[in-house]
Fold:
Amino acid sequence: MGHFAAVWDSQLALETIKDLNGVDQIVLRNPQGASARVSLHGGQVISWRNERGEELLFASSKSILKPPKAMRGGIPICFPQFGNCDSLEQHGFAKNKLWAVDDDPPPLPANDSNGKSFVNLLFKPSDEDLKFWPHNFEFRLRVSLGIDGNLTLISRIRNVNGKPFSFSFGYHSYLSVSDISEVRIEGLETMDYFDNLLKKERFTEQGDAITFESEIDRVYLSSPNCIAVLDHERKRTYVIRKEGLPDVVVWNPWEKKSKAMSDLGDDEYKQMLCVDGAAIEKPIALKPGEEWTGRLEIAVVPSKFLQ
Ligand code: TA6
Structure:
């Protein structure tokens, strides 16, 4: 590995291509053949494949691939709010805007770079954006692919405003699953959550893993920083590790809502599950000059390791 890694051509590690709308996408590769693709539209990870080329993130076959609409799938970056609020579109505007490659980012710890193929992106609000959300910020996102094929997203949001502001945030992660009825989540047992299907009423999760028989739209609060999503049929487990993201959104629209969504196939709800590292219940408050970091790492391991 050492020798192989040493001759690994860094040009192969990172390539820029254009999508159908002429928007740049950055392709990250690792020596084993795993890859990830990040669109400058929204800083959205739109694909993550393992070394066998298997797609690990869901992407709707009905996606409207036309800016400003974000592709339905991948990992949309939800900022400055997750969910609805009066003055902004659902899940904020960052996911619908054009980002730029950040050529000179403030340094990150070495272990966030060593051996990884990564891209640094930067999003700053336009004058138009500031009309809707009058708080100036710099949003730096690093997306990286490790030698182990793990996908890591690190968001650094700095208040460059003259006054404090608060925001909520979510990595809206569409996981690709074999069949939603074959999937369970471990790590959220006994956690409190609010239920978006029941006017955000609060409940406490029971003691077993979460399984799926109908629409689910919940925000689990102050959750553990390691969650496992087990796909029994594929014998595949997504291990989600997070920092700075106390909450976990679990969402599947199920049949009725899928049929009502123009950019989701009627039956595609069976192949997806959103498990989002988020900061929702307690918005992040930043004073001028302060910076928040939200980090998400997703690994896919054979389920035998997690009986
Ligand atoms: O809780 C997740 C959620 O807010 C659901 O209520 C549903 O609206 C979903 O996000 C839609 O997300 P989208 O990918 O369409 O932006």
